[in-house]
Specification:
about 140 residues, mainly alpha, two-stranded antiparallel sheet, 8 helices
Amino acid sequence: MSNHDRNVKLTLKDLIAKKAAKQAARNWSEEVYIDSLEGEITVSHPGEKIMFKTFDMVDGSSSAEDAVYANAFVIYHAVKLFQSQELMDEFDVKDNVDIVRHLLTPVEINELAQLIMERSGFAKGEQVKEKAKNS
């Protein structure tokens, strides 16, 4: 939690007024330029269940490979274009998540996963960077 003015007492009316903003935060979508693809992709909130599964995949003893897979997992679910069966067939992937590793560089995977976690409200920038260092 941040150290904002701690003397502000919220009321029920204040919390109800935040409803629309909270719903909008759960339904975000944005265009992201990917250098290696030389174009933009649409990235959206993958959903809370996917976010929880992503965090379950990585713990303190996870390998770097596990961390990259978890990042690719969240990206796969956040980018509808990557879920195309035609794309899977063209790249001959057995595990759908592997399409992310075929299309993006490792740096792009880490940066895009970080963006998704931050925009989805599951991490602050500093937390994600620290977790990546420790992987």
